[in-house]
Amino acid sequence: MGRRSMRSNRTLFERESELAAVDEALGELTGLRADGAEPAGQPRGALLAFAGPAGLGKTTLMAEVRRRAAARGCTVLSARGGDQEQRVAFHVARQLLQPQFAGAAEADLRAQLGSWYDIVGPALGLCAPTDGAPPDPQGLRDGLDWVLTHLAVQRAPMVLALDDAHWADPESLGWLAAFAPRTEELPLLVVVAYRPDELPDHAESFRGLPGRAGGRPIDLEPLSAVAVAGLVREALGTHADDAFCRECWAVTAGNPFETVELTAKVHDRGLDPTEAGAHLLRDLAAAVKGSGLIARLERLGTSTVRFAWACAVLGTEIHPMLAAAVAGLGHEEAADAADALRGARILTGAETLEFVHPLIATAVYRAIPSGVRVALHGQAAWCLVNDGQGPSAAARHLLETHPDGDNWVVQQLRAAAAETLRSGAPDAARSYLARALREPPPFEDRAAVLHELGSASLLTEPATTVNHLRAALEEPIADQELRHRIVYRLSQVLAHSDRLAEASDTLAREIRVTDDARVKLRMVSEQFMWDAFRADEPDHPSRSRRLTKLADRLKGRDLTERYIIGLRTWDAVLRGEPAHVALHHAERALAGGLGWAEPDRGFEVPVLVALAFMYADRPGRTEELFAAGIADFERQGWRGAHLSFGYTLLAYVRYRRGRLAEAEDFVRAGLRLAERVGPGTPAHWYAVGILIEVLLARGRVTEAAQTAEDYAFSEPFPAAVVFPDAQTVYGELLLARGLTKDAVNQLASAGRRLDPRGIRNPAWCPWQLHLARAESHDTPERAVTTALEALSRARQFGTPSAIGQALRTAAEVSSGSARVKYLEEAVAHLECSPAGYELACALVALGTELRRTGRAAEAAEYLYRGLDAAVQCGADGLVEEARDELAAAGLRPRRLHSTEMDTLTSRERMAANLTVDGLSRSEIAKKLHTDEQTVVRLLSAVYRKMGTDSSGLREALEGT
């Protein structure tokens, strides 16, 4: 460590602009100027990135950053990437965060980390991984975000310094690259340094992170001749002449590291720093790097060379005794070697060793003969395991060894993969298992390794997972339980890759050869589930009959039976059986428990059971089940597709309840999560389809059309059944845009796809209702027939919301007195339902129809009620429609209700009611004796407090 301290105390030549940026950032972080004399403004964080080739002084600059940060009272988190540690998952994250929790007891750690303990604890090495399902990578990143944010707020101001970021492990670097843009929101300064030409592909986003250099890193330049002369004279004395200094600059090209090392060599040789000795500099400079450095190392003796090689293999934070074991040296011999390497300025430190500079470490590592290097890695792996550091510490070394059929290597790699996977690093686990497969494993273990490899690839490479699992099934498998797990996993990943037919066929083949009755029942339940999601299932009615017969005789004794009963629930919903039948089976399925995060189970059936309550007009129960399910996901750290489905479908529940603003917030959150998973996945189709539905209900047709275009929401539609049905939503969008013929084609096609499968419930898929509206433009008689057929199906299902919605559509496509009759009945049904938006639509439609038939007094009542209901729903387009109808009837919107007024100040109340009375902003300003900007602020406050644009507020706020 002494050598590093000596170097860090040197003058930083020609780094004034970089240090000025550091001081400015620290000033904004701490709220003080560099001299600490007076406040510099509200504290805020930032990102600083320094980039430059090897040897340009990044490490020295980072040491100065840490020194200045500590001098200003900042908490400093520090880490350094290592060439040999790039394959160690979360190596950098552990360096940064582990010291902040050092020495804490488990109870204290649980208190500090809260619900994130089991998710981030294993990744940070704070606790052992649990036996449950691993967190998905995004969930773990969210947990690390929380930990760093929490620390930044608790221990503000904070500086995070990462040196050699180009060598950081992918998991840590990906997390930090995603987190860094948030620094300006926190009392946190992130400073990174890296070599731009060595930044790996997985960190390309790191180059464009926001920073103080206009979104680009601050590039370090080589030193000028003047700066090199200053550095030389600082090291060798002021008598070093100009010619000598110029030659130093010439032979080092202004590289600070090489200049420092060259001056040290000059000092060791006792060379006079004058023009007379300048001709020797080129040879001395050659000894500082590359082959010259290695030649200098070799002159130190065989044992010293071997010790240096062992240190290069081990990487950073090298324990001398461990290096001695790897090198095969005794204690005294190793101590002598370490002393010699410190004297030669190759190593530094005492209790923990490290190379003086990464360039030296790289040169020494590359100089190791390939065969010896492989052997040293193997020895390092054995020594680490023998030292009690475990398989995960040894795994990166085993990756560098040659396959040799060694079962010990296979077992260590499998153990390391299991631990790493449960810690949330599937990519690292996959690399360990792929290497284990090449060893190769014993014949009888090959299927198990392939299964583990497939499971590790599940979240990141589904196609690769399928290949591995299919290969596993081709192996002889003595353990039938293992075979069954492989089949379950394979069917699951096929289904989640939109290959539902293959998932079903995989299970069907295994069902035929399985003797165990309970296993066969589990496989049958899985097959029923994937077939339920198949848009192209050839024989849905037959499956439905078999499912009904099976489910009706099951008692729900275990999870498999409850899953089958849950699937019976969903089948009843799709087929439009009376709602009480679906609810009966839903309660049976839930009676023994139906968790959303059961090990080795999908979450699909619990979701379907929960949604059955929504379609049966009991959305409150649905939301209770969703809240519990989402909590299960978050406890497991599942924040990818699982949580996306949770938020997206919760948005659908809010949409069907008529709480459109909340629905939009939830579905946009779900869409953000779905985008992490990737386009074209079922999660993506669900989120985009629901968002379009919500936007159409809110009257934002143009935005809905743009959303469909942005996300390619059009043909071809997914092979998996999604809800709302994607093709039906697309047809609804075409209809809203006035493209009626195209809408008819799409909606009729949806009917031809769903009807033969027995899916006849308009509450689940209202394709007939939208088709009737589309047909009414050119074939009104056919539209009536279509609407009445949908109404008949809705009456069979029997829920007020389904019947009311169908009645409203029947009214829309009918003529004469039938319109009022249907609408009055629709309102009566919808008033008994939770479908707030549908009720608002029916009220406005009935009021409009009554106005047109001359029944003005009755029309006013329904229009006012419809307006209030539309405002509460956030249905902006319907609000405008109701206001227009009231205006056509010669009526004004009512003043705000007294209960609504309770949250407003007196001036806000006056401004709101003057707006309702139709006054302009300038007229309101005069009456309130103020200016228009104040009026805008008052109305904006009303808007925020009311949560709607009720009673003309939006018009009053136009232009703000």
Automatic annotation (TrEMBL):
Keyword Transmembrane helix recorded: no
UniProt keywords, alphabetically: ATP-binding, Nucleotide-binding
Coiled-coil portions: none
UniProt keyword Ligase, yes or no: no
Superkingdom, taxonomy of origin: Bacteria
The protein, known as: AAA family ATPase
Location of the Orc1-like AAA ATPase domain: 39-191
A Pfam family this chain is assigned to: GerE
Domain HTH luxR-type: 902-950
